[in-house]
Amino acid sequence: MTVYPDDRAIQALKRYDQAETYVSETVVNTVYIDDSKISNIETKTESGMMFRMAKDGKMGKSSVSLNSPGSVDDCLRMAETVLKYSPVNNVFQGYAQPTQAKISAPDVWDKKVENITPDELRELAKILIGSCRVNIPRAQIRVSCTETRTVNSNGVDVGHRSTLVYGHFTSMTVRDHPGEGMETYHGSHLCLDPVFIGQELSRKAEAAAVCREFKGTEKLSMILPPSELGDMLTSSVGSAINGENCKYGRSMWKDSIGKEVASGCLDIVDDPTVKAPLSCVFDDEGVPAERKPVIEGGILKGFLKDTYCGGSTGNGMRRSSVEAQGAYERTPTIKPLNLVVKPGKLTREQIIEQTDNGILVEKFAWPEADELTGRFGLNVRSGYIIRKGEIAGVVNNALLMGNMLEAVKGIEAIGNDPAQMGVITVPTMSFSGTELVGN
To answer: What beta strand segments (E) does 289-427 contain?
Structure first.
């Protein structure tokens, strides 16, 4: 590790009851595609620092880009000003204490990402474009290397380095009417398959272009692939297990430790030991990370916490699973490191075969449930209606309504096709209790 705070920041730690300095350095390489053509390839570098402190019950913080000799002094001066005018905080209990690591270092550094060239990025984009039968209005492949260091006045001094690969791809075609498709890739290693992505973009756009509007209202089983389910579970279950939401009474599961909150077939663990964008030995506050059961057999086992909540579980994160830049600007918040839903044994085709009346949603307008209640009412851009185990048609312009915190109690099937989607690894799953409303 070569990244370390400036000595002026280290010396400043001694002036406060509690203080912490965090630095990050990032190199990002991105290739952009517009209208099925490579429009730009760029490299960005970033170095920055955040300083946080507490004194006499007050708290201050500031962050700066380290782009000049005076940046560190500017950061310390601004943080001192914030401290001076901040109200007394009776909740804060202190920053992390030094503790031994609980897991071995996960494999989150890819030499291919570290050494990638513009020509290699261009070739990935060319293969993707050549594999797609329809237009690609917008797409990007972004690969980055990040090194960070957290040092505080309690004696914490920990570093982290990781690579991040993120891809976002859209497609469009016109048949009966416009049809769109979308694919994403999340990972720590450069393992994305441009041929597969191009084929999937084609298939999704072509299917959406022959959709028919759904008529009427019907209770249906909802089948969600990883691409749609990832955000749906993160926004609902991820919010329900957030320790800050529990602390302030916002979580629907705040009083449910040891109680049944989901179907007995559901097991979820927060696992930072595997290849995933946020896997780490210590979180961004310097608290050791570890493998933590969240739901076992439908029973809620625990919440995720940072130091502000007290009793941190090593889930205080600045880094993002999508964007490597800007980590030093973010105050730590509670995030899963890598929620893993235990996969089942069924293929997606087998789940369809055992569904009497259902809808396989290939694309929502925006796949997200309400963070506090779990409720959702989402526009289906492309969905496959299932009758007695067979696909009976493709529909769009319909509203699918339900509640994800209730849906996890009515899980009908869990697939064997897990995929990494940001901070969650999830397979295709089927749920009862949703309603589809058409025009």
So the answer is: 292-296, 299-300, 316-317, 333-334, 339-341, 357-364, 375-387, 390-396, 398-403, 411-414, 419-421, 424-426
